[in-house]
Specification:
Elements: H1 4-15, E1 28-31, E2 45-50, E3 58-63, E4 69-75, E5 81-83, E6 93-98, E7 101-106, E8 115-123, E9 126-129, E10 133-135, H2 168-217
Antiparallel strand pairs: 1-2, 2-7, 3-4, 3-8, 4-5, 6-7, 8-9, 8-10
Helix pairs in contact: 1-2
Length: 218
């Protein structure tokens, strides 16, 4: 019996640490108006997330150009909203729920709102996330004076050997890994703390029961 609490603790830690990238439930985040490719300055931009389960509750977050994550709002299954700073409303955003659709509205789109928008769901200590929906202003190019391209002997244009193409899949995986780290450790720490408290109470009760039996034998 002395080793039972330790064994229970190891089993509980195994159950507390499921994989966070399971795709049992799929989620999507997109512009509500499918004709929109790039938002305009001052535009009212509406996004919607199709959640995996109607009773889940959804987080909306934004990944800016610098790679920083910004929490926007949590929409509960009871239609309640919690914005940054534990506020119920926001001057910049609106959030609603309609069946399995969790909608986010940027009231007036500005440069500080640019980024990739994700929706997340935490269910039974499993984290489910949508692909990112890019929301950036269209790139504008200005005419530049043409300069002759460098050439080698024979008129062949030289290529810069240092040019590299970024792998979008690698960047996306890094973004999702960072998001997962934020949302998995908080509920994990709470669950394991509760387990340790329960084990401590069980040990104390067992010791008290053993003492009572010893007294009765005398």
């Amino acid at each position: 019996m002395a080793g039972s609490p330790a064994l229970l603790l190891l089993l509980a830690l195994g159950l507390c640490c499921p994989g966070v990238r399971s795709q049992r439930y799929k989620m999507t985040a997109k512009f509500r108006d499918s004709s929109i490719k790039h938002p305009r300055v001052g535009q009212r931009l509406e996004l919607e997330c199709l959640a995996a389960k109607e009773d889940s509750g959804v987080f909306w977050i934004r990944l800016d150009k610098g790679g920083t994550l910004h929490f926007i709002v949590f929409i509960s299954s009871l239609h309640r909203t919690t914005f940054e700073g534990n506020e119920k409303t926001s001057t910049r955003f609106e959030a609603t729920k309609d069946s399995r659709f969790y909608r986010l509205v940027v009231k007036s789109f500005t440069p500080q709102d640019e980024g990739n928008y994700f929706c997340l769901m935490n269910s039974n200590q499993m984290l489910y996330f949508s692909p990112g929906q890019p929301a950036f202003f269209p790139v504008t190019t200005t005419a530049a004076p043409t300069t002759p391209a460098p050439t080698t002997q024979g008129g062949i244009t030289e290529k810069d050997p240092c040019l590299k193409t970024l792998d979008p899949e690698t960047n996306k995986e890094k973004e999702l890994d960072f998001v997962c780290d934020i949302f998995i450790w908080v509920p994990l720490a709470g669950a394991c703390l509760l387990l340790l408290i329960a084990l401590a109470v069980t040990i104390v009760l067992c010791q008290q029961t053993r003492r009572r039996r010893c007294r009765c034998k005398r």
